[in-house]
Fold:
Amino acid sequence: MKTYFEHQKFSKWISSISLGLVIFFGYLLIKTYDTSTFLGMLIAESISVLIFILFLIAKLITQIDKDGITIKFIPFHLRQIKYNWIDIESCEIRKYNPILEFGGWGVRHGFKGKAYNVKGNKGIQLQLKNGNRIMIGTQNPTEAGEVIDSYFKT
Structure:
């Protein structure tokens, strides 16, 4: 049987926006002469640098195989999270609205469950037997769906 593997990173435009913030706050930091304003700009610059680094290193790794679906969202997960087929009630590929359903991208908790996504609006929707709902973003919904169909029987 086939194994599906996907490695995703945040879109370049998100990294570009965060780099823009680094440059903006860096400029303000250089132009500031007042001590209290300088400290505020230093804090803003430090936070924007950390956010920029986070977007550069963050990645979502998904694997689908005979045992189930495994994900790891670096740097948020130290270990992989495994969803075994036996624990999954339903599994489907679907289009979703990341902002309305989950409040955006990343590791998100929304009214429709938990989401792991970095870009796009297509994902693997899991309904677990324990009642939890999980959305895992994918950039290759057709290929992921084919592998899911070969293992998961509803």
Helices lie at 12-31, 35-57, 98-102, 141-151. The chain has four helices and nine strands. The chain has a mean pLDDT of 90. The chain has two domains: 8-57, 66-151.
